[in-house]
Amino acid sequence: MLDLTVDAERLAGAYVGRGIIPEKKVEDALHVAVATLEELAAVVTWNYKHLANLRKAVLFFSVNLENGFHKKVEIVTPWEVVGHVES
To answer: Is the CB of residue 5 less than 8 Å from the CB of residue 37?
Structure first.
C-alpha cells in the first residue's frame, strides 16, 4: 500500500488545474500522482476516459516534467499487462 502525501495531492492538483482530469475525478489524478512520486513503472486501469489513453499520457508526462519528474509512468490496461488470452 502506498501513502497519499501532500506532494501527491499537489501534483494531482496540477493535473486537475491543467484540465487533464476533471475536479470531480481527483482520485484518478491521485493514482497517477502517487505512481509518479513512487517512480512506479505503470498504472494499470480500465479507465479509458481519464487515464488509459495516449493523449492523456502525454499531458500527464508534460506536467510531470514541469514539476521535476523525469521518469515516465506508463498508463496501461490489464490486457496490455497480461496479454489477451483466447478461450
So the answer is: yes
* Phi/psi at 44 (5° precision): -105, 125
* Residue 13 CB contacts under 8 Å (≥ 6 apart), including other chains: 29
Q: Name which of 13, 80, 77 is nearest 21 in CA terms.
A: 13
| Angle at CA of residue 3, ends 83 and 36, nearest 5° | 55
Q: What is the pLDDT of residues 29-83, one digit of tens each?
A: 999 999 999 999 999 999 988 899 889 999 999 999 999 999 999 999 999 888 7
Q: What DSSP character marks residue 72?
A: P
Return all residues near 43 (Cβ < 8 A) that are at least 6 apart.
31, 32, 35, 51, 73, 74, 75, 76
